[in-house]
Each structure stands twice: as structure tokens, then as C-alpha cells.
Amino acid sequence: MLGKRKVRKNVFELVFGYQFNKEEAPLDYYNRAYDNFVCEDDEEESVKNEFLGICENVEDIDSTISEFLNEWKLSRLSKVTISILRVSVYEMKYLKLPAPISINEAVEFSKQFAEDGASSFINGVLNNIAKKMNENA
Prior knowledge:
Layout (H helix, E strand, L loop, with lengths): L3 H15 L7 H8 L7 H16 L1 H10 L11 H15 L5 H15 L4 H19 L1
């Protein structure tokens, strides 16, 4: 078993890659792209469900993110940053993963994959989203 971190990394990579292949249906893209990923059989279903869940709910997820960008627009963010934010918001909003876990993982991903300075930006946006979600719970 590879664990949630590897599942999350695979989902992140799929979400990132799909931004360059939007002419394809999400399931077709998943089936084509997934051959390049390392995952155990018992985790493949999680990766698939989370990726398709993000694609299915991307408008709601992006709306949630946009609400907390202050003076930024989603279109101005890097595709890496958008992908990290989408995965984390999906985890918190749809999978009900505790915010501190999802935010910490997002920050770690941003340190590894995103541009310099993105980790504090991502941390701030996600913390504000988590606060709002807690208020509405």
C-alpha cells in the first residue's frame, strides 16, 4: 500500500496534466494518463474517484478558491498552484479530510512543485477557506 500521500500526488499530477488536455473527457484522459503512474490496485480506485470528483466539481471548487484570492484572479495563478489548491479544497469540502492535514500536504507539495513563495500564498488561501467552512459547519 502506497498510502494517502502517494494517492494525493497521483491525483495532483492528473489534475495538473488535465489542464493541458481539456478537450478530452476526464475519464478518457484518466485511462490514457494513468498508465504512467505507480499505484497499488487498492489505491487506483481512490485516485480515479478523486480525480473524476475534482473534474466533476471543478466549477464549485474554483468558485470557492476564487472567493479567497483577494486581488488575484484564478487565471493569473500557475497551473501548479491551481492544481494544488483544487486537490486540497476537494479533500476538505468533499472528502471531509481535516483541514490541517490537507493544508499541510498542500504546502509540502507547493514547496516541492510550485514556484518560490507559492507555499505561503497557498497556506493563506487554504486557511481562509477552512475557516469559512468551519463557520458554515
